[in-house]
Specification:
The chain contains five helices and eight strands, in the order ββαααβββαβαββ. By secondary structure, the protein is an alpha+beta fold. It has one domain: Gcn5-related N-acetyltransferase (GNAT) (Aminopeptidase). Helix 4 crosses helix 5 (129-138). The longest helix has 15 residues, at 99-113.
């Protein structure tokens, strides 16, 4: 998307540009039951093309030298709006340890300071309380519920929670 190599240091994580060598570790992350519950709509063996979308910046999250998660962002670069949207997934084995909020906070700083964004958005499933708590720790606030926003693997529709973060609210 930007064409630049990204390497950002958080307190406990490194968030960096994805390479082809990361794909096996990322496929293991995306295959975790706790991740598949929310990100079920892709074939694990076909994850690589998803990471090459020209409108998405695909990043990996490292902790202690191991790939433990995936983070992506997309940008609206119009001067009238200037915002970015974020998505995150973490391996089940490292969830609940503050690594997600560290990764989101690290990328948020980059998007505000280096990329010049005014606002960030994220849209977890309304039932994904773990993700919502993670984003609230960084300063995201709920904006509203998007009714029947996403389809679950069983075909039923579920609500999504639209959350946003303005630069002064970053914690």
């Amino acid at each position: 998307m930007t064409g630049e190599e990204i390497r950002l240091h958080g307190e406990r994580v490194v968030v960096r540009s994805l390479t082809d060598a990361d794909l096996p570790a990322l496929e293991a992350v995306m295959a975790c039951p706790g991740v598949r519950a929310w990100w079920w709509d892709f074939d694990i063996g076909e994850f690589a093309p998803h990471t090459r979308d020209p409108d998405v910046e695909a990043l990996v999250i490292e902790h202690d030298g191991a790939v433990v998660g995936y983070l992506q962002y997309s940008e609206e670069v119009s001067p009238q709006y200037r915002f970015a949207g974020i998505d995150l997934s973490l391996h089940d084995d490292v969830q609940g340890r503050g690594l997600g909020s560290d990764a989101v906070r690290t990328v948020a700083r980059h998007l505000f300071e280096a990329r010049g964004h005014h606002r960030l958005t994220i849209d977890p499933a309304a039932a994904n309380t773990r993700a919502i708590r993670c984003y609230e720790k960084v300063g995201f606030r709920a904006v509203g519920v998007m009714r029947e926003y996403e389809r679950a693997a069983d075909g039923t529709w579920h609500d999504g929670l639209l959350m946003e973060l303005l630069r002064p609210d970053l914690r």
